[in-house]
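Journal club prep — side note

Before the paper discussion, L.F. wants everyone to see what a predicted structure for a comparable chain looks like in token form. Sequence:
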Amino acid sequence: MSSTGMVRYLLILFVSIFLSGCATEQFEANTDLKKFQDVSQKIEKDKAATTDNVQKPSSAILASVDVGDYLLGPGDLIQVTVFETEALNALVRVSSRGFISLPLLGNVEVSNLTAAEAEGKIEADLKVKYLHDPHVSIYIKEHVSKQITLVGSFNKPGTIDYVSKRKLLDVIAIAEGLSEKAGSAAYITRFDDKSKKNVNYFIDLDELVRKGNMEQNIVVMGGDVIFIPETGQCFVDGAVRKPGTYPLRSGMTITEAITLAGGLAGYADSDKIKLIRRMENGKERQVLSLSFSDLQGGVGDTLLIKDQDIIFAESSSSGTLFSGSGFTLGFLGTGVSFTNPKK
């Protein structure tokens, strides 16, 4: 071997030994795939069990809500129709004290009555003195006695008047859309008149907004509180092309997260891709080691990323060496060119 070749060989050997010393694993695996998934499933089940009164709306609630369930209140504008005589018809607004003023009857209290209950009350009052068998219909033209409260990731959160029956997409449009940090779920809290308790409904915004599934477009009622939390985030670091923080999408997998980060870099150790997840107590963490072949074999499409997960791709010493360029080691420019590609 010539002296120049010997110099190159020794320099390559030196750099390889140096990088090998620097390429120790930064996160030691402490679990396997089955245990990792079992723990994740248990956490999800525990969350579901402890979540108070959160449910998916039934098909009837998603499709429509009976306007008769709405309780009349101050400011509501209603059309009262008496079929036996047009002279008794009236377009009236509920007063601040909960009364409406009608021909012949004068003031009639309708506050906290449904439209059907108010119809029955007016029919009974008319029957006492004026009509033998009256038939009354009430149509609510404006619902303003109750407001809708928007909390969280709206461009314009706050309160809006419930003027008429609207669906969730209508309300989102009134709030000028969702913010960039909006998550993939909406929670609607509604007071149930029958049980006298608040009921919380879960709406999948991915299905509604991104996939156009109108079955999720729930009717919004006066008094509803709509909360849209911010999306979670994951961190992709190490030997990837674009390390950084990425927002979580519903059902995001580890393969998708690595793809968002530009894929593995040329100097990555394809057998040492780590998924790090903190436990609920915040003190412990699970470290799962995967290989690129694991991801290609289907594991990557089934392993869902959770909020605050860290994906770390380890570097290989040989990959780092052969991906390097630019810094010359040797005599009279005849040596090896190397720049650490991780910098």
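L.F.'s comment for the group: Confidence is low (pLDDT under 50) at residues 325-338. Keep this in mind when we get to the figures.
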